[in-house]
């Protein structure tokens, strides 16, 4: 599903994605319309602009990911401001691409987003991980009655460690000599156990526990 308030841009993106073999199930031009149509169309991937009338893109993202944690959101924005990128990720976006990207770059980004990989315009991934590292150095104190962390299997921990290092599912599968589908299953199981919504949150969790340095 493609959400953008500029009709010509929205139609061009939808047309490029459809030509590349994607099934574009819906489009929308403002925030409330995006929430309504996404609820009915149930897209697997949402290509979302941040600057929307009626409701900002980050709120659209937060509502839709909250209702459907399996939804993958690729923000496609003209803004490369650090605050916008971090706010989008914290609202549940799994990737962030600038509108200066070419058509093939967008198609590749949507394909990778659909596969569960976090996709960022070069330079922005480092920003996001840097912010998570900063947060990890001063984590919020645990509540006294906070339950113990769920136990992950050795293989789930191994996959999580490689996710934290920035490897794609394909690279993890090759490294561990297992199938791409098995890697996805391990990640989904880990997300469920940790009550996290997406792979970006999973990377933060791993960094907070030092798994990216292991």
UniProtKB/TrEMBL annotation:
The keyword Phosphoprotein applies. Gene3D superfamilies: 3.40.50.2300. InterPro entries: CheY-like_superfamily, NreC/VraR/RcsB-like_REC, Sig_transdc_resp-reg_C-effctor, Sig_transdc_resp-reg_receiver, Tscrpt_reg_LuxR_C, WalR-like. Residues 145-210 form the HTH luxR-type domain. Keywords: DNA-binding, Phosphoprotein. It comes from the Bacteria. The modification 4-aspartylphosphate is found at residue 49. Residues 1-114 form the Response regulatory domain. This is Response regulator transcription factor. It comes from Streptomyces goshikiensis.
